[in-house]
Amino acid sequence: MKSNKPLPVIGIIVKTKLAEKNMSQRALAEKVGVNEKYLTEIIRGRKAKTGSKYLKKICDVLEIEMEDLNVAS
C-alpha cells in the first residue's frame, strides 16, 4: 500500500540523487548493506533512530554530505 504522505527532505534528496546517478533503490540498498524495504523505511523517515547508522553509507554512495540531508550526524 502506497502512502500519500509527502517524503521528508532526506527522501527527496535521495530520490533525486538516485535519478541523477541512474541508480535503483535496490542497488543503493545493496551498496549500503540493507534490504530494499528497510531502505524505503529510512527514506520515508520511519527509521530515524536505527536508520541513522546507515545514513553515512547512503551519503558516501550518493556522494552527498550529511548536512545536505538536514539531519544530525
How would you briefly describe this protein structure?
This protein is mainly alpha-helical and 73 residues long.
List how many beta strands DSSP finds. Answer: 0
The CATH topology, please? 434 Repressor (Amino-terminal Domain)
- Helix count equals 4
The second-level CATH architecture is Orthogonal Bundle
- In N-to-C order, the SSE pattern is HHHH
In helices, the fraction of residues equals 55-70%
Tally of distinct domains: 1
State the secondary-structure class: mainly alpha
CATH superfamily: lambda repressor-like DNA-binding domains
Gap between N and C termini, in Å?
A: 31 Å
How does this model look, in words?
This protein is an all-alpha fold and 73 residues long. 59% of the residues lie in helices and 0% in strands.
Topology:
Layout: H1 9-20, H2 25-32, H3 36-43, H4 48-62
Key terms for this structure?
73 residues; globular; 434 Repressor (Amino-terminal Domain); 4 helices
